[in-house]
Amino acid sequence: MSNSTTEAPKGAPVLKVEKLAVAYKVRGGEIEAVQDVSFKIHRGEVLGIVGESGCGKSTVAWSVVNFLGANGYVKRGSIHFQGQDLVGKSGEELRKLRGDQIAMVYQDPMQALNPSMRLGDQLKEVLTVHRGMAPKEAEHRSIEMLERVYMPDAANVMKRYPHQISGGQQQRVVIAMALLNNPALLLMDEPTTALDVTVEAAVLDLIADLRRDFDTAIMYITHNLGVVARVSTQVGVMYAGEMVERATVEEIYTDPKHPYTQGLIRCVPKLGADKAGSMLYPIPGRVPAPANRPTGCIYGPRCDYSEDRCVQERPPLRQLNGRSVRCHFAEKIDPSKWQPPAGSELPAISGADASSETILEVKDLKKYYDVQGSSLRDMLGLGKKRYVKAVENANFSVKRGKTLGIVGESGCGKSTLIKTIIGLEKSTDGEARFLGMDITGNLSSRDEALIQELQMVFQNPDSTMNPSYTVGQQIARPMERFGTVPKDQIQGEVIKLLGSMRLGANYMDRLPRQLSGGEKQRIGIARALASRPDLVLCDEPVSALDVSVQAAILNLLLDVQEEFNTTLIFIAHDLSVVRFFSDEVAVMYLGQIMEIGPAEAIYAPPYHPYTEALLSAVPIPDPSAKQKHIRLEGSVPSAINPPSGCRFHTRCPRKHLLPDGGEVCQRTVPTLREVGPGHKIFCHISPEILATFDPVITVESA
């Protein structure tokens, strides 16, 4: 039952947006960020809004709560919430609605949490301000809601500050805060983008529960098509400020009508697809800026079906078999007959074979960090030394021309492992040999030739690019430093490398601020390749990118690998991307490799119980896909004091299968058992029992 002071008539939508146009005042006039957007959301419905960055998804949500800034305003159209028009309401009237009947959950929970206030005080404030509730009753209700969002030890969490809980827990606090007044409408703007796949799965389960138990209307904004398939009842596809298609989630995935929707789906690797048997097709070009949109159909310059009519006439949003589509030729387009553009073909994956040389070999590698205690005894060095055991006994090898994918939750040691390999961190113990040379020391002790052969692509190119230097200068720098090409040929080599990145010579003189996120990442890859390295380490290089840019970067890395026979280590949290891109996969948990082997073996039984849980959590861009429901209890233990025996035993859902109920897991460290050619699992459960598990994911045939 809703606490709302106003109720929409029975059967009427909670939110009804009609012909919405949002404009921003700029020097010399104004620009329309959003134009002609219409949709409805009823109680118990989830509208997923998808599209590339710059399409206006967040602007639509912000317009509902009037968070458009001083220069933004609703220029045309109406926004009706439970029958009342929000456009033109005073700030005070909207403040009464916000946090009470309408709540919003942001991508970054720290935007909504006050770092100087305890979480309990922030939660109680929602009830004392909007409901006039007594502090004791508000505290009791807040603890109940934290438990409702699966927060462990909710009463103690109330006493903590935001920085004292994990990112996933922060997001749960924000969701609990949004739900305290049982809002009629919940706006969610990329709420799981920064979360681990296991935490994301728990949050998405929670959203499904909210829709069912609270009968809440939800607008869910995301660029992840897998998330949309899991949580939405209907989907709105936005492009360049317009809603180009709106239909049920099943219709969008099984029979997309707009060419843009079809293009988005072709950008996403299906779980189980690999680089040898499938290909990603990025959408050419980019989303036009609001001030530079084409006449006629806005999508026309990027569309495979564009005709003269598309250039001259802007298509209206029209009804087609019960759905809304903004395309002149939607009923004539058959996506199954789409042909890839000329020159697109599956890469000739040669890579390495069994006889190829091993380029990198790691044995029992460890990386510990000293922990400085705060007591006087610790400061004097008299206390017992404590360590963060970030990487523990890592063992693997990589052959020339192959890709090793590394997956696992945050804090599992993925990034520390590759930072130790590249020399940004000095190893504590163990061996690591690259091209026969020892690489266990830090960069200061390395030979220059070794540094040249080892390069890295970071997740955030902004943090590694010098904002004062041009693109050409930053790519040329490694060539000059290592002498890979003669000085008089450097400019030509930079232009050639830019061409390999699908960028022209006109990018030479641009500064980083003049590039899009995808272009910056391509420059980061170009700079890593400028020294012609044998091994490139990629730390989440596509996680922050739109699906089309992600597809282009993955294709680019595959082309580079094939052309230069480059070896790659690839970290990502999207298991579909890792499966598509990698030859071998290592699954890490709390500093240890739990499973490693060929990619096709990792995604089929027998699984390590942790791998099984990760696969059950990954959002799949296919509503017909069925997944086991395996959710890990609790959070990842501290690497300062990891559990004895098997580090995963505190969260393992399968340890009861052992004869002693899992006691051996608490006492004894398991051995890495070989369960197939090159496939090893670090678990006490026998391979025979693991092989009896059903596949985590099954897809119904059409």
How would you summarize this macromolecular structure in one to three sentences?
The protein has 702 residues and is of the alpha/beta class. It contains 23 helices and 26 strands. The protein folds into four domains: 8-101 and 183-340, Rossmann fold (3-Layer(aba) Sandwich), CATH 3.40.50.300; 113-180; 358-585, 3-Layer(aba) Sandwich (Rossmann fold), CATH 3.40.50; 611-699, no CATH class.
List the helices and strands and how they pair.
Elements: E1 15-26, E2 29-41, E3 46-50, H1 57-65, E4 72-81, E5 84-85, H2 91-97, E6 102-105, H3 119-130, H4 135-148, H5 154-157, H6 167-179, E7 185-189, H7 197-213, E8 217-221, H8 225-231, E9 234-239, E10 242-248, H9 249-254, H10 259-266, H11 308-312, E11 318-320, E12 323-325, E13 358-371, H12 376-379, E14 386-399, E15 403-407, H13 414-422, E16 429-434, E17 437-438, H14 448-453, E18 454-457, H15 471-482, H16 490-500, H17 517-529, E19 535-539, H18 547-564, E20 567-571, H19 575-581, E21 584-589, E22 592-598, H20 599-602, H21 609-617, E23 625-627, H22 663-667, E24 672-676, E25 679-682, H23 687-690, E26 697-699
Parallel strand pairs: 3-8, 3-9, 6-7, 7-8, 15-20, 15-21, 18-19, 19-20
Antiparallel strand pairs: 1-2, 1-4, 4-5, 9-10, 10-12, 11-12, 13-14, 13-16, 16-17, 21-22, 22-25, 23-26, 24-25
Helix pairs in contact: 3-4, 4-6, 15-16, 15-17, 17-18
